[in-house]
Design goal:
138 residues; 6 helices; 0% strand; mainly alpha
């Protein structure tokens, strides 16, 4: 090996090896960092629920939804292609945040993550809509 190799190549290889070693070091978040991350994930999920609730309220106001049956149909159409349902990562995170993660059990129990998220997401939305008593005692 020449002097140039000794001066340039070996240090470059060593630096690259050190850089790769640092890239693949596991990161251990602190308890506070983990709590903040979980809070952000939950806020994101709740924002998705809130957005659909607002859309539903606006649709009722415009007359697009009339009665509980109309709301059921609207909700199914509105959320079946929602990113929270079709993106596997979003579905898993949503199930983690949902207060109705077992809602699919009430409709025959399904094991598919997206399908479980559909029912949990829908139940979370319906819970919030109940506070508005949209259709009286219908």
């Amino acid at each position: 090996m020449s002097t140039t190799d000794e001066i340039l190549v070996k240090p470059a290889r060593a630096a690259a090896r050190d850089a790769l070693a640092n890239i693949f070091k596991p990161v251990r978040p602190t308890g506070d960092e983990l709590e903040r991350a979980l809070a952000i994930i939950d806020q994101d999920y709740q924002a998705d629920v809130r957005a659909v609730v607002i859309d539903a309220l606006e649709a009722v106001e415009r007359g697009e939804i009339t009665g509980r049956e109309g709301l059921d149909e609207w909700l199914s159409r509105e959320i079946e292609d929602h990113g929270r349902i079709i993106c596997m990562r979003q579905a898993k995170l949503g199930l983690f945040c949902s207060s109705n993660e077992d809602a699919a059990d009430d409709v025959g129990g399904v094991s598919d993550v997206s399908e479980r998220m559909f029912w949990a997401f829908r139940a979370d939305i319906e819970e919030r809509l109940e506070h508005f008593n949209l259709f009286g005692d219908e």
